[in-house]
Amino acid sequence: MPKLKTNKGAAKRFKFTANGKIKSKKAFASHILTKKSSKRKRNLRKGAYISPADAKGVAKMMPYA
């Protein structure tokens, strides 16, 4: 069997935890920040776990992670 290719875009965006959950950075934190409140911007700095519904697709893109 040939090796499976890792989706490099996904590999740069997601990390697997030791328990098998998938971590990512939160969206909407890169630009147009003036209209967002300080509290909202502060919360966007924290990482997030992706939902179980999306986790299945991400796991397929990263077969060896």
Describe this protein's structure.
The structure is a single chain. The protein is of the alpha+beta class. It is built from three helices and three strands. It has helices at 8-13, 38-45, 52-61; strands spanning 14-16, 22-25, 47-49. It has a three-stranded antiparallel β-sheet with strand order 1-2-3. It is elongated and about 50 Å long. The mean pLDDT is 95.
Give the count of helical stretches.
3
Secondary-structure element pattern, one letter each: HEEHEH
The low-confidence runs, each spanning 5 or more residues with pLDDT under 50, are none
Shape: elongated
Q: How far is the first residue's CA from the last residue's CA?
A: 19 Å
- Please summarize the sheet with the most strands: 3 strands, antiparallel
Total beta strand runs: 3
Rg, alpha carbons = 15 Å
Helix content range: 25-40%
Biggest β-sheet: strands ordered side by side in the sheet: 1-2-3
SS class: alpha+beta
Kindly state the mean pLDDT as a whole number?
95
Strand proportion: 15-25%
List the SSEs and their pairings.
Elements: H1 8-13, E1 14-16, E2 22-25, H2 38-45, E3 47-49, H3 52-61
Antiparallel strand pairs: 1-2, 2-3
